[in-house]
Amino acid sequence: MTEIRIDLRPAAQSAPAAHAMEPASRGHVIEPAEPAAISIDRLSLWYGHKRALTGVSLDIPVNRVTALIGPSGCGKSTLLRSINRMNDLIPGVRIEGTVAYHGINIYGKDIDPVEVRRRIGMVFQKPNPFPKSIYDNVAFGARVNGYRGNLDDLVESSLRRAALWDEVKNDLKKSGLALSGGQQQRLCIARALANDPDVILMDEPCSALDPIATLKIEDLMREIVKDYTIIIVTHNMQQAARVSDYTAFMLTDETTTGQLIEYGRTQELFTNPGDRRTEDYISGRFG
Predict the structure, then answer these.
(1) pTM metric for this prediction
(2) What is the rounded distance in angstroms from the CA atom of residue 60 to the CA atom of residue 36?
(3) From edge to edge, which strands make up the β-sheet containing 199-203?
(4) Fewer Cβ atoms within 10 A, N terminus or C terminus of the chain?
(5) Which CATH number fits domain 36-282: 3.30.1330.40, 3.40.50.300, 3.40.50.1980, 3.40.190.150?
(6) What is the pLDDT of residues 124-174, one digit of tens each?
């Protein structure tokens, strides 16, 4: 049977105005005023018989950084991987609910998950450059996808956007594995950007990096969010406060696994949380 490919690329949008109205309240889960890049509605997920997410609903706004926080095992990374169907690669996974990308349900029967992952790129916890040159690392996805433009220009522009070009421009034939940890992570970001995504998922991208490299990645996020929607999983409360515009707090307790407790503007959530469990977590009482 021929697989049907759906073009998931959204129409061009301008960044939301800075003076947009304040979000409308939905209990402890707000609805952002900005247009939604990703809309998650009553999403539940099971790994075999083990439930990992329970009825998660939230809208991720375009051209903003959204942080997912919560203690280990609360479903943050599972939720992140659900947004570009990475969980499909795990045997026995079952989902209910919807994940919509600019209004298109990415779990629809005619949706090609490869196309989903091209439009919604991912950067993993540990840098994972291929055992190839810096150049070939960045060009890999474009070659696989039949890119017909100038690869040299694509590699340079992607490395520039990842704030790595000036450090490696004279060593493009050097192995990506020979770079420092922070450089490797920025190389992986450049590799993701070369596929021309719209949304970038980051699963604890700084957890294996030193403080200086971490700050470079954080500065990079704040720079490229003008052109991309970014969703980051982090255990670092200071990092969430520094880089994100919105924050979602998740929790697994004695009765419910992988539930969304609170979602709102980062400054408001950290200074005036609406749920006591959120306050207890960000103040370090547990987790």
Answers:
(1) 0.89
(2) 5
(3) 120-123, 199-203, 229-233, 65-69, 246-251, 259-265
(4) N
(5) 3.40.50.300
(6) 999 999 999 999 999 998 888 888 899 999 999 999 999 999 999 999 999
